[in-house]
Amino acid sequence: MKRILILLALCTGLPAAAAPKNDAASALAAMKRATAYMYDHVSVDGGFVWNYTTDLSRRWGELEAYPTMVWVEKGTPDVGELMLDAYHATGDEYYYDMAVRTARILIRGQLPCGGWNYKFDLAGTASEQRWFATIGRNAWGMGEHGHYYGNATFDDSVTASAVDFLMRIYLEKYDPQFKPALDRALDMILASQYPVGGWPQRWPLMYDHPDADGTPDYSSCITFNDDVTPNNIGILLRMALLLGDARAVEPLTRAMNCVRSLQQGTPAAGWADQYYLDLTPAKARDFEPAAISTVRTRDCIRLLMEFYRWTGDRKFLDGIPAAIAFLRAAALDPALAAELGRQPGKGRILCPRFFEPGTLTPLYLHRKGLHVDNGVYYCDQNPHNVIGHYASLVVIGVEELQRQYDTLLALPAAEATKDSPLLGHARLEMPRYRTPAIAKADPSRARAVIAALDDQGRWIGPLDWVLVPYIGPGSASDPVPDRYEETVGDPHNTASLAAETVEGISLRTYINNMAALIASLPERSAR
């Protein structure tokens, strides 16, 4: 949800502070040196993963990657967007040229269906299948990487981030080299939409990997989790208003109505993360039960309010009171919250993430075992000893949701929709900057950022995401601990964090440091 609100914003302003002339020259030089190193020494033809050891001998995306891999998920498109941001901030064509390199590598990794998987391997299908059979298959808790589907995913903004970047770079100069790939991606978003208005997690549809208990492969379910539906709604809006493609209008309307129609009834009048095609809540990964999600409910409330601002149609507000009532009813008793050592703060509630559909019975997430060959996830009503990698308890700002709803309800429709691009009351434009870190950056950090750049143009520091290497599968006869802390760190689980501190090159550090330098530059006229 946060992503769609960022991307739908109009041109953003620059931070108020600006560097003196000499500092600006130093910032520009540091930006160029760091970017040259990242593209010329770290990238694979303009594609990136998340983290690298200093000597580039090992690298990681969400899992350890081969040297020939490019990570799309939270990786390569983000750097492409940063390059266009740097181009806007400096006017230097070098950054546009680097964005082109990134766009071209993404196009190389585009699947025939028009979308992208979490990553792609330039060494070919056999290499990627070997990765899935070893590193991917043994990543306990990351079931999305456990199978080679060969199709595209909407999960984690993977396809959406690539589409958004290609759309932006195409609109930058209307360079026709990007249009065929963009068209293929947009065609996929249209083709993959279900009649009810939602989207599956993966496309083309496959049913190859049901759970051991017979639960159907969840990748074909109508998916809200990780912003699958909101992201595609945002793309349809931009497709209609920025590209002038009228094909997007009806699917956009259908998708907005889908969000409204999948709200469940009382007492748990919220939304699930995903739905079977009979529109009932669906199970996904082992720790994602068929349930009503308080997180998804919060996000859908925000989304419905946005739809009202776009359309002025009050039907999008009708279900919000019941949804807020559900969130209030979901709040943990203060004594239990205190027992668990959680204090949500004023105007906020602590509540279970999941509830059994049609009830107020919470579902807390647990696991036992060490790895994929002897581990199992399960749910019950015990809020203690829950898993640590996926929150069973979440904090919801319910009073702020209530305030926003009350304010919107009190506005005349004409006032509520005064900035609606869909009604033509405002012009939708590509924002000047699309890297969220720029708006959050502290320009006063620029001198420290420049000083931290080494003589090769690298920002070296401790990596926050280093996983154990693949050493082979575990055994079903291995111990089966049931305390969460004892289930973590087994060397046969390729999703285990390494115990030692590793220094290296972080893509996120590069993006954040570039954002600080961009924020420190004197303002240029908007492109």
Write up what this structure looks like:
The chain is an alpha+beta fold and 527 residues long. The strands form 6 sheets. Strands 2-1-16-15 form a 4-stranded antiparallel sheet. A 4-stranded antiparallel sheet has the order 9-11-12-13. A two-stranded antiparallel ribbon has the order 3-4. A hairpin with a 5-residue loop joins strand 1 and strand 2. Helix 2 runs antiparallel to helix 18, helix 4 packs across helix 6 and helix 11 runs antiparallel to helix 13. The protein is globular.
Structural class of the secondary elements? alpha+beta
User: Count the strands?
Assistant: 16
Overall residue-averaged pLDDT value: 95
Largest sheet: 4 strands, antiparallel
- Measured by DSSP, the beta-strand proportion falls in 5-15%
Helical stretch tally: 18
Oligomer: single chain
Shape field: globular
- Binned, the helix content reads 40-55%
Low-confidence stretches: 2-17
Could you give the distance between the termini?
Answer: 27 Å
Backbone CA Rg: 23 Å
Major sheet: arrangement of strands: 2-1-16-15
Could you provide a short overview of the structure?
The protein is an alpha+beta fold. The protein is built from 18 helices and 16 strands.
Secondary-structure blueprint of this entry?
Blueprint: H1 2-7, H2 21-42, E1 51-53, E2 59-60, E3 69-71, H3 76-90, H4 93-109, E4 119-121, H5 125-136, E5 152-153, H6 158-173, H7 179-192, E6 202-203, E7 222-223, H8 228-241, H9 249-261, E8 274-275, E9 292-293, H10 294-311, H11 320-330, H12 334-339, E10 349-352, E11 354-355, E12 362-368, E13 376-380, E14 393-396, H13 398-410, H14 413-416, H15 436-440, H16 446-452, E15 460-462, H17 484-487, E16 503-506, H18 507-520
